[in-house]
Amino acid sequence: MTGYTDAPKPIRAGLVVVDPLRGTPQRVVVLQFNPDSLERSLAPQVAGADGSGDRTEALRLKGPAVETWKFTAELDATDQLDLPAPNGIHPQLATLELLVQPTSDQVRANQALASLGTLEVTPIEAPLTLFTWGGKRILPVRLTELTITEEAFDIDLNPIRAAVAIGLRVLTVSDLPTGHRGAELYLAHLAQKERLGGAAADGRLGALGLGGGVQ
């Protein structure tokens, strides 16, 4: 006899922080619930976008489109209050917040360089972050927005429910050095799009009210 226990578990969306040199995961963030919706925006990188009016540039692309993603992640510990959680969902929120923060050691190191009179302190490089939405969407990204709305608290004012609005920008070969692991992952993502597009059935001109060709 089969039951609900035999149903396959859904794949979770999430974020993976990767060592860009070794490719080994440093941190894995699994979303507690898959978002109900995703907002994706693609802005083409066209030549002549400065309004110069060069007609020879009308159909030329300078590079990959600028792609952004937005979604809301929900964190909820209210149905798990029988489990030890002395900090509520503070740990989960902190994990997300640290994706857009340098470490305290990195900040101290730069402060020490500045105090020694270093004229130019190199900006801190963040690890490579990947956003995963199933096996067909694994994207190198930079977090551009992280808005946290804490909605419920325990008796010690630890948050136990929150909605986190997350904005991502996909990093392309235009953003990363040639040969960078993130650039190679973007090219793999682009190739996956091409394979999926090739699997789509072609439409017919007759459906558009057109004849055998476009004159």
Automatic annotation (TrEMBL):
Residues 28-168 form the Contractile injection system tube protein N-terminal domain. It holds the Pfam family CIS_tube. InterPro entries: CIS_tube_prot_N. This is Contractile injection system tube protein N-terminal domain-containing protein. It comes from Kitasatospora xanthocidica. The lineage of its organism: Bacteria, Bacillati, Actinomycetota, Actinomycetes, Kitasatosporales.
